[in-house]
């Protein structure tokens, strides 16, 4: 296992999530879901900007036209960073007022994949959707509890997905042209003492970097054989997600949360809710942009 140094960026999120590297702006974005906050940290100036929305804000992605794509409550919207104007695109599960989005990514064809959960964390209440240019959400998986981390292999043959309470990373056959998926196997089983798998990203060697909620670490797993390869220890219990960024795509931005911590624990782990920058020995990929 390697030893990693970290730099913390104060943000004190109740539920930090949705890390995203915006190469054009050379900045990292992330969100505080419960408080509807969007953070942007410019890597060179080290300045952090904050915007607020009167919604649950779970997902930050990028459109080919230069605007951000935001997952707000159960709706997808475009957000113009210059005018700060929101344009609503589509909605899922409008009949379930307690549901919200949780995690989202753009696939190699520019389609948005985004999952839902019940804010009561009702077992089996969530689903995973795929949204293409027609803006008609297509359900890909149902009976999920906490729809979470996603990643695609470089050859576009495999889609990895996490439903957090299962403590499994599942591999699906992925059909690039159609966006169809078929379950293949359980790629990684997470032991109970390591916490719960949350958000994740994939590196250029095809290994998965997974945030472990309740596990104080980001773990690097080999999805081909389920082997644990490496870990990044952090001074907070609830690690929520991670993404590669920086000029060389070798820096992980890692989000964390204060939720489910007592006052005593918050005093013990005062950096909970902040984000961490960690230089790694590998590189990730530039995020794909949505074609909507």
Automatic annotation (TrEMBL):
<dbReference type="InterPro" id="IPR013658">
    <property type="entry name" value="SGL"/>
</dbReference>
<dbReference type="InterPro" id="IPR005511">
    <property type="entry name" value="SMP-30"/>
</dbReference>
<dbReference type="Pfam" id="PF08450">
    <property type="entry name" value="SGL"/>
</dbReference>
<comment type="similarity">
    <text>Belongs to the SMP-30/CGR1 family.</text>
</comment>
<dbReference type="InterPro" id="IPR011042">
    <property type="entry name" value="6-blade_b-propeller_TolB-like"/>
</dbReference>
<protein>
    <submittedName>
        <fullName>SMP-30/gluconolactonase/LRE family protein</fullName>
    </submittedName>
</protein>
<feature type="domain" description="SMP-30/Gluconolactonase/LRE-like region">
    <location>
        <begin position="15"/>
        <end position="258"/>
    </location>
</feature>
């Amino acid at each position: 296992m390697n030893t990693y140094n970290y730099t913390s960026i104060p943000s004190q999120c109740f539920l930090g999530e949705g890390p995203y590297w915006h190469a054009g702006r050379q900045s990292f974005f992330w969100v505080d879901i419960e408080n509807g906050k969007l953070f942007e940290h410019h890597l060179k100036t080290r300045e952090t900007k904050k915007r607020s929305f009167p919604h649950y804000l779970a997902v930050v992605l990028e459109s080919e036209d230069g605007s951000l794509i935001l997952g707000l409550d159960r709706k997808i919207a475009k957000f113009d960073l210059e005018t700060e104007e929101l344009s609503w695109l589509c909605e899922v599960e409008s009949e379930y007022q307690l549901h919200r989005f949780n995690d989202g990514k753009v696939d190699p064809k520019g389609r948005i994949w985004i999952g839902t959960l019940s804010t009561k964390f009702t077992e089996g209440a969530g689903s995973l959707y795929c949204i293409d240019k027609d803006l008609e959400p297509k359900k890909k998986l149902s009976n999920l509890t906490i729809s979470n981390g996603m990643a695609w292999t470089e050859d576009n043959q495999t889609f990895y997905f996490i439903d957090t309470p299962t403590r499994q990373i599942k591999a699906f056959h992925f059909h690039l042209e159609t966006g169809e998926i078929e379950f293949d196997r359980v790629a990684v089983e997470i032991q109970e003492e390591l916490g719960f798998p949350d958000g994740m990203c994939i590196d250029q060697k095809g290994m998965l970097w997974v945030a472990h909620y309740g596990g104080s670490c980001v773990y690097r797993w080999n999805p081909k054989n389920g082997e644990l390869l490496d870990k990044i220890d952090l001074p907070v219990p609830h690690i929520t997600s991670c993404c590669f960024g920086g000029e060389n795509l070798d820096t992980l931005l890692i989000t964390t949360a204060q939720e489910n911590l007592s006052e005593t624990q918050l005093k013990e782990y005062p950096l909970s809710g902040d984000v961490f920058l960690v230089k790694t020995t590998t590189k990730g990929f530039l995020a794909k942009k949505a074609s909507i």
